[in-house]
Amino acid sequence: MMKDDMKPPTRKARHLRVPVLPVEEEAIKTVAASAGLSVAAYLRNVGMGYQVRGILDNKRVEELARINGDLGRLGGLLKLWLTDDARTAQFGESTIRALLSKIEDTQDKMQGVMRAVVMPRSDR
Q1: For the segment 29-39, what is each residue's pLDDT rounded down to a tens digit?
Q2: Diameter over CA atoms, the chain
Q3: CA torsion, points 48, 50, 51, 52, in degrees to nearest 10?
Q4: pTM here?
Q5: CA distance 76 to 113
Q6: Contact by Cβ (8 Å): 37, 45
């Protein structure tokens, strides 16, 4: 049995009424959803001075992980070539230039995904 002082605090509901315009209501709901919070939890956190952090889209995170893996594999090929590994002896200058171009393209793609995750939707 728990001692009384060890029980989690209960929230005795008190409601605050805040008049908002319809456009403000939608904006608040959108921001709360993007943070993964209910409107009440979002407004409570903001009102108490907490910084509300957004949640990341899982699909975007998975896409970043896949792109990062691609970069790792491409970098590994380049490293093998730079160390004169026998497995890359047949690679000529054109192959290496194509590899470097692919690495650059993959980095650009990764930056685009990161911008989509980090930038607010209204700025896109």
Answers
A1: 998 888 888 99
A2: 75
A3: -80
A4: 0.46
A5: 23
A6: yes
